[in-house]
């Protein structure tokens, strides 16, 4: 396999057609098609399913595409490191941050990074697992700081735990702040993030293991901002980290639900690709984030 072949494969995925992929690489359609056929010959596998109305990736093609993206990301980071060391460019880090850390520690994270790297470039995104996991795997994200259930993560990811965080249920209904039975709470309207390995999924799985079955259809919401708005404006129950509740929600008039008991605390830490080299800037950010998380 050659790098030009892998670039052709990624370009086809990103652009959706042979014509657009060829244009993005400055190649003729015939040259791009030849490169892809040579790649299939070199791997001994059909990577593409060529149909009248377009080209789709086979299972083997999707697997190789994931590796191809990782190869490109690794080379890009290697080039960035060499340029940074030789003074040609500035340190750069691409990170995703859980809404919990974003709400309580993002300014400290940014300020400490800026003190260490005055000319550095820091790209920030909200660390919702449904969006950060694919970006970690394809190499477009360096690290995600998150609260997660590590046993449910893909094998190619490494989780470095900083601390554990208690999860609590919250609502605007004052009467639910009193001690409640599970039977009473099953009749309430719950809103949960259905993405796998999230705090909500962990909490819901824990309730299911206890035999708690919600009687009302759960509202599914993958946006932390929208979920917060629902809690403030509707009579619903949601799940959030305990420190975030006391720092942001309690002062806004939101109540902690009087649950009969709580699940085990969830791990919080840094999520990275196992075999992806980390730049010094990324390693420093992980250390900074760990220090901040222990003080929240």
TrEMBL record:
User: What CDD domains does this protein's entry cite?
Assistant: PBP2_LTTR_substrate
Task: Tell me which residues make up the HTH lysR-type domain.
Answer: 1-58
Q: Which domain of life is it from?
A: Bacteria
Q: Which is one Pfam family of this protein?
A: HTH_1
Q: Which UniProt keywords apply?
A: DNA-binding, Transcription, Transcription regulation
Q: Where are the transmembrane segments?
A: none
Q: What GO molecular-function term can you cite, just one?
A: DNA-binding transcription factor activity
Return the similarity comment. Answer: Belongs to the LysR transcriptional regulatory family.
Q: What name goes with this protein?
A: HTH-type transcriptional activator CmpR
Q: What is the lineage of its organism?
A: Bacteria, Pseudomonadati, Pseudomonadota, Alphaproteobacteria, Rhodobacterales
